[in-house]
C-alpha cells in the first residue's frame, strides 16, 4: 500500500471509531441519568503520529487530547492543530520536567505529591499562569502504580489547597486490571464516593468538577459509575505501536 492510501484508510477507521465511542458515551450517560454533554472525551495520543491526531482534531470533533510524556508532546506539538483545543498531561510527571511543560498544557491530571504540586506552582508563577490540576488516586492501592493512597487523600488536599497558582479541579484514577465489569465498577464507584465526599466538604481552592476515569476497555463502566471524563486511546486511534 502507498503511504497515501494507508493514511486514508486509517483516517476513515479513526472517524468510524470516534462515532462509535460517542454513541457508547451517549448511552452510558443516559444510563447514569446524565447527558452526553456532561461527559468529556479525551483522546489519548501517545505514540500516535501528528497526522492522525490532526485528523481527529480537524474532522472528528475531538477538542481535548492527552499526552503521557513531556518529551513526546514537545516533539509533536508544533505540528498539531491545537487552536481552540485543550491539552492535558495524563502521564506521570517528574519534577525536573515541569518547567518544560507548564506553558503548553491546560491541565495536569497526574499530580500525586506535594513536591510536584509545589514545582508546578513555582513554574506557573514565573510565567504568570494559573494551572488546573487533578489529583491522581491509587484506587487499587497497587505498588506498581502512581497516585495518592485513598486514605491519605483528605490530608493531601488540605496541603495542596494552599499552594498558589494551582487549582484542584477533581480526581483521576487508573484502576487495576480486572477480569470482570463488576470488579472494575467497584473501583470506579469507590472513586465516585470519594469525589462526592470531598465535594460535600467544600474545601478552600478544591473544586470537584472532573472525575477522570475509564479507558478503552472500561469507559462505559466508568461513565455508568460517575466519570465526567474518559481517556480513550487505542479504541480511537488503533493499537499502539511502540
Ligand atoms: C494510555 C493511557 C490511556 C488510554 O489507554 P487505552 O487503553 O489505549 O484507551 C488512558 N489514560 C492513561 C493515563 C494512559 O496512560
Structural class category: alpha/beta
Number of strands: 9
Order of helices and strands: HEHEHEHEHEEHEHEHEH
Helix content: 40-55%
Poorly predicted sequence stretches spanning 5 or more consecutive residues: none
What molecules are bound to this protein? pyridoxal-5'-phosphate
Number of helices: 9
Q: What's the mean pLDDT score?
A: 96
Biggest pleated-sheet summary: 9 strands, parallel
Residues in β-strands, percent: 15-25%
The termini sit apart by 21 Å
C-alpha Rg, in Å?
A: 18 Å
- Overall 3D geometry? globular
Any overview of this molecule?
The protein has 242 residues and is of the alpha/beta class. The protein has nine helices and nine strands. It has helices at residues 3-31, 50-59, 70-76, 98-101, 114-126, 153-160, 181-201, 219-224, 234-237, and strands at residues 40-44, 64-67, 86-89, 107-111, 131-138, 148-149, 166-173, 206-212, 229-232. Strands 1, 2, 3, 4, 5, 6, 7, 8 and 9 form a nine-stranded parallel β-sheet that branches. Helix 1 packs across helix 2. The longest helix is centred in the N-terminal third of the chain and has 29 residues, at 3-31. The mean pLDDT is 96. Pyridoxal-5'-phosphate is lined by residues 44, 46, 68, 90-91, 174, 215-217, 231-235.
